[in-house]
Amino acid sequence: MKDLVASAERRPLPGETLHGTGFAEFLGGKGVNQAIAAARMGARTAIVGTIGADRYGDEFLDLLAADGVDTTWVRRHPSLGTGVGLPLVLPDGGNSIIIVARANAAITPAEVTAAADALTGGQVLSVQLELPVEASRAALQLASAAGVTTILTPAPAGPVDPSLAAYVDILVPNEVEAAALTGLDCDDESQVPMIARKLAEDWDLHGCVVTLGSRGAYVLDRRGDYEERVPAHEVATIDTVGAGDAFCGSLAASLADGAELIDAVRLANAAGALSTAVNGAAASAPSRAAALALLDG
Ligand code: ADP
After folding, report:
1. Where along the chain do its domains lie?
2. CATH number assigned to the domain with residue range 2-296, chosen from the 4 options 3.40.50.1970, 3.30.1330.60, 3.30.565.10, 3.40.1190.20
3. From CA 291, how far away is CA 251, in angstroms rounded?
4. Ligand 1 centre and the CA of 152: distance in Å?
5. How confident is the model at residue 283 (pLDDT cuts 50, 70, 90)?
6. Which of left, alpha, beta for 238 (phi over 0: left; psi -120 to 50: alpha)?
7. Based on CB atoms within 10 Å of each CB, which residue in 24, 36, 148, 204 is the most buried?
8. How far is CA 208 from CA 73, 121, 133, 146, in A?
9. 245 part of the active site
10. Of 211, 192, 189, 229, the residue nearest 275 (C-alpha)
11. What ipTM did this prediction achieve?
12. Other Cβ atoms within 10 Å of 161 Cβ, number
C-alpha cells in the first residue's frame, strides 16, 4: 500500500477544495513491513504478493531489495495499480482514510499456489489479513502441510474466518485485535492471561503472543507449557506506527533461527521497542545487532 498523506486544519466540506498544510508519502502494508523487519534480523526472507506494473510498484521492489528481501514471488498485475491509501490527518492527530486496494485485492489462491516454493521452502511463514482471506488461507494451508511454522497477525482487527485456525501455529494479536477476537478487554491486566488461554484453546494453537504496546507482551507456549509476561523496554518513543510489524517480523526471524518461543518474544519485544524510537513503519525496524544490544543492556 502506497500512502499519500495530506495534513489539513479540518476536513473539506462537500464540494469544497481546501488547501492542506502538509504532505508526505510512505510505503507500507503489514506484509512489506514484516518482511523488512525479518530481513533486518538476519533472516533470509521472501515476500509473496501482488503490486501494480506502475511506479509505486517499482518503489516497493526498490525498498524490499534495499534490505535484501527476495521479490521473486511478487506478481505485477497487468491492469490493476498498486494499492493506495489516502489519509487526511488533522491537527489533533485524528484522521480520515480512503483505501483503494487495487492489486492487493486481486491476489487469488491460484497465484498463491504458484508461489508454493517460497511458502513451503522456509522455516516460518508469517501471514496478515490485508489480502483476500482465500489467499491467506491458501498460503497458510500450503505451509502448514509442509511442516513450516505458521504465524498469523489477525489484522485489521475484526472477526476472523474460523477456517484459518486449522493452519495457524502461533497467533500474534495486538490489544485491539485480541479484544475483537475474544470480547475481553486487554486494558484490564488481569484479563490478559485469560485472553491468551482462550485464543490458544479456541484456535488450537502451539502459542499465542498478545502484544500490549508500551506494556510489552504476554506469551503462552502450549508446547513448552509456560506463560510469561514480558515487560516493555523503556525507550524514547516518538512514533509507534509499525511497532507490531517490527515485533512480528523479528519473531518470525528468530523462530526461523531455531529459537524457543519465549526467546523469540524477548528479541521481538526489543525490536518493537526500538522501532518506536524512529519515525515511519517499514523504515523503523531495527537491526539484529541493535535489538541484541538492547536485550543485553
Ligand atoms: P501494534 O503496532 O500492532 O498496535 P503494539 O502497539 O502492541 O502493536 O506494539 C508491538 C510491540 O512493540 C509491543 O508488544 C512492544 O514489544 C513494542 N512496543 C510498542 N510500543 C512500545 C513503547 N511505547 N515502548 C516500548 N515498546 C513498545
Report:
1. 2-296
2. 3.40.1190.20
3. 12
4. 17
5. confident
6. alpha
7. 36
8. 29, 24, 21, 21
9. yes
10. 211
11. 0.99
12. 11
- Please identify which residue in the block is written with the cell numbers 506469551: 219
Q: Take residue 253 and report the three cell numbers written for it.
A: 526471524
pLDDT tens sequence across 103-138: 999 999 999 999 999 999 999 999 999 999 999 999
Catalytic residue among 3, 169, 221, 245: 245
Report how far residue 207's alpha carbon sits from residue 223's, in angstroms, rounded to the nearest whole number.
8
The confidence score (pLDDT) of residue 104 equals 92
Nearest-CA neighbor of 167 among 139, 195, 209?
A: 139
Cell of 188: 484490564
User: 284 pLDDT band (50/70/90 cuts)?
Assistant: confident
In the numeric block, the cell 505485477 is attached to 76
The best mutation among 174, 175, 250, 251 to test binding of ligand 1, ranked by most ligand atoms within 8 Å of the C-beta, falls on 174
